[in-house]
């Protein structure tokens, strides 16, 4: 009996393997990988550039060369899918050409953050599975835009970034930010525990925002930074990190926490 069958009652298994930070090769954005495993049939390869089939026969030599740093990027990820076909175990091996943190979902039921640059999956005989591999560092909790009324006379004045809801007053539970007032109409001011931090370069990701020192976080934006298009990191009252672009319409996103 396989380890998967023992742990999960024969529904499939994800064995922990690989985690790494960084950019994809040639700075390509990461596209989620979906592999369909149908009992007795070849695995359907989605044909993505970042997913390269190297074959089980080449795995040992590949790992040896990988350990020597002979591939670019050096910190790529090996995915090995083991299944039983006609009574024989068959291993299909892929190289995932990315340095990002990855997450594996199998049939949408089991979630594993991969470690040590390897993902190992064993499929219980007689079952069909869908293997989803996504970028754990950019999982979005909420994304959208909102407007706030600096006068408070004809529109909403507060927003909850964790739900995307705008409110007419500060007393609504969950409110994170309000407008900057008449002198700072495009700015934002934190409500409760919500905070905002200036960001001056390209669009930040979650790791960059969460890595800002505590002294960077303020209750409000500076008046001199109220021009449309200024990007800031935000921290919601529920502790999630996000980013927002200031303007008459505020475009924003909030990332999921790693343990969500």
Chain-averaged pLDDT: 76
Widest β-sheet, arrangement of strands: 1-8-4-5-3
Overall form: elongated
The helix count comes to 3
Amount of beta strand: 25-35%
Helix percentage range? under 10%
What letter string, H or E per element, gives the SSE order? HEEEHEEEEEEEEEEEEHEEE
Distance between the termini: 32 Å
Q: What structural category do the secondary elements indicate?
A: mainly beta
Report low-confidence residues grouped into runs of 5 or more: 1-28
Compute the CA-based radius of gyration.
23 Å
Identify the quaternary structure here.
single chain
Largest sheet: 5 strands, mixed
**Tally of DSSP β-strands:** 18
């Amino acid at each position: 009996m396989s380890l998967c069958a023992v742990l999960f009652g024969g529904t499939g298994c994800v064995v922990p393997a690989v985690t790494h930070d960084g950019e994809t090769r040639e700075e390509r954005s990461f596209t989620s990988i979906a592999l369909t495993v149908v009992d007795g049939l070849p695995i359907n390869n989605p044909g993505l550039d970042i997913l390269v089939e190297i074959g089980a026969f080449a795995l040992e030599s590949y790992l040896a060369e990988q350990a020597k740093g002979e591939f670019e990027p050096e910190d790529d990820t090996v995915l090995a899918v083991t299944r039983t076909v006609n009574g024989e175990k068959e291993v299909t091996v892929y190289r995932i050409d990315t340095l990002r943190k990855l997450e594996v979902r199998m049939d949408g039921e089991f979630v594993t953050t991969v470690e040590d640059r390897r993902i190992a999956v064993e499929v219980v005989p007689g079952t069909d599975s869908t293997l989803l591999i996504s970028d754990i560092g950019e999982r979005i909790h909420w994304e959208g835009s909102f407007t706030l009324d600096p006068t408070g006379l004809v529109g909403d004045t507060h927003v909850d970034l964790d739900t995307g809801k705008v409110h007419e007053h500060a007393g609504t539970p969950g409110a994170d930010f309000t407008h900057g007032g008449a002198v700072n109409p495009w700015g934002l001011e934190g409500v409760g525990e919500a905070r905002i931090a200036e960001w001056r370069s390209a669009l930040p990701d979650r790791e960059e925002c969460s890595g800002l020192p505590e002294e960077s976080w303020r209750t409000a934006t500076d008046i001199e930074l109220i021009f449309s298009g200024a990007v800031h990191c935000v921290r919601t009252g529920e502790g999630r990190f996000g980013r927002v672009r200031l303007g008459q319409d505020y475009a924003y996103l909030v990332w999921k926490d790693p343990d969500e």
